[in-house]
Amino acid sequence: MQIQNDPRFKDITPFEKRQWLASPTMHGEELEYIHEAFDTNWMSTVGKNIDEVERLLKEKIGVPAAVGLGTGTAALHLAIRYAGQELYGKPRAFEGTLKGRRVFCSDMTFDATVNPVAYEGGEAVFIDAERDTWNMDPDALERAFELYPDTRMVVLAHLYGTPAKITEIRKICDAHGALLIEDAAESLGAYLAFSDGTSTMTGAFGDIGIISFNGNKIITGSCGGALLAHAQEVADRIRKWSTQSRESALWYQHEELGYNYRMSNVVAGVIRGQLGHLEEHIAQKKAIYERYREGFSNLPVTMNPLGGAESHPNYWLSCVLIDRDAMCPAERTETETTWTHVPGRSCPDELFEALKTFNAEGRPIWKPMHMQPIYREHPFVTAAGSAAPADQPAHTDKQSADSSVSADIFARGFCLPSDNKMTPEDQDRIIEIVRRCFA
Ligand SMILES: Cc1ncc(COP(=O)(O)O)c(C=O)c1O
């Protein structure tokens, strides 16, 4: 039945203005810095805004070096390429640094996290998620090192702003002599606070970390990314790669493969203006999360996890996980979905349709990489062992045959509108729409 004609939703009025998952929240300083770039004619990939963004990031995240880049994906590519070169040496210009090598990667994430492994000719081995943070499972990672002991690189994402079990993962990487690339695209400002009074921001645990300033992130430049490094030489080398690897010579001299990945000084102006509002944005997102938690307290759902006592998320997106016995019969093929309503039950795809009908945006949880057609032949490791290709789940398009944590969260999880500018009344209407789905 069409949601619009469904009596469960009678008397709900559509939002006049679309309610977004997460949209840019501008403050005014951004425009001043864009003007500064314009007035000084630094309409380029050089300028004060870029220098200031790099300085502010070093200060905020507590790393010695930062490089402003065009996107988070570009930052991941250069981070992974750098690590590949450190581990396996400089390849010939037409070959990737990871040719024939395996890299352990988060399974439940956006494909931007893992694609650069393929750009560099490597094979991503996907590591299942755990339930306490929805991020890479340290037990599955340990298992992966048993199965593929010669692997030397791990790429981990902190999803939806909740820090992964990163101290455990860091230890595992160190024990196996592996480099850790930390995708903090979604988790700027999230940190772990330790019992000795110290704390570490996400992005600073890895050998190299990255952030995204994509339009939907907690701080945006409309686009943009940054790479975080623990040594100035690493940052300088990567900065050079990002501007076509020009050597210091009078003419265009190239010893290494180059990219056009540098951040624009105009985009950097937006980020520079935004960065002072990070804490305010986190507080707004936290209030949204808590209002949802309260509003759903008697529905058969739980909120996305926040991690343990040390964890301080940035609450970028609020999500729900529907209880197993409250899932209505539902089936997904690769691109289509069907479900049958049963009173008291619902499913993520019904939540999606209901919100869309009333002009609000929701989204299923990231579809795990091991379930993606492009990566289906790749190995996938769960805490119980190797799940694919030998054991099949990665080859099936029926989630019911897949017992991994990431497939389960994908089947039952859903991201809710989490825009900073949403009013409590807007949010109450969203809560009511979700409630009616379970009527
Ligand atoms: C987990 C994750 N990694 C990487 C990226 C890529 O960042 P960008 O869009 O800036 O390239 C994103 C978001 O877009 C992301 O959510």
According to CATH, the fold-level topology of the largest domain is Aspartate Aminotransferase, domain 2
CATH fourth-tier homologous superfamily of the largest domain: Type I PLP-dependent aspartate aminotransferase-like (Major domain)
Category from helices, strands and their pairing: alpha/beta
Main CATH class of the largest domain: Alpha Beta
The largest pleated sheet is described as: 9 strands, mixed
Number of discrete domains = 2
Bound molecule kinds, no repeats: pyridoxal-5'-phosphate
- Rg for CA atoms: 22 Å
Helix content: 25-40%
Task: Tell me what you see in this structure.
This protein is of the alpha/beta class. It folds into 2 domains: 3-23 and 278-372 and 389-437, Aspartate Aminotransferase, domain 1 (Alpha-Beta Complex), CATH 3.90.1150; 29-275, Type I PLP-dependent aspartate aminotransferase-like (Major domain) (Aspartate Aminotransferase, domain 2, 3-Layer(aba) Sandwich). It is 32% helix and 15% strand. The chain has helices at 29-39, 48-61, 72-88, 115-119, 138-147, 166-175, 232-242, 265-275, 278-295, 348-357, 405-412, 424-437, and strands spanning 65-69, 102-106, 123-127, 153-157, 179-183, 191-193, 199-201, 208-212, 225-229, 301-303, 311-312, 319-322, 330-332, 337-339, 363-364, 380-382, 385-388, 413-415. Strands 1-9-8-5-4-2-3-16-17 form a 9-stranded mixed sheet, with helices on both faces. The chain has a 4-stranded antiparallel sheet with strand order 10-12-18-15. The longest helix has 18 residues, at 278-295. The radius of gyration is 22 Å and the shape is globular. The structure holds pyridoxal-5'-phosphate (PLP).
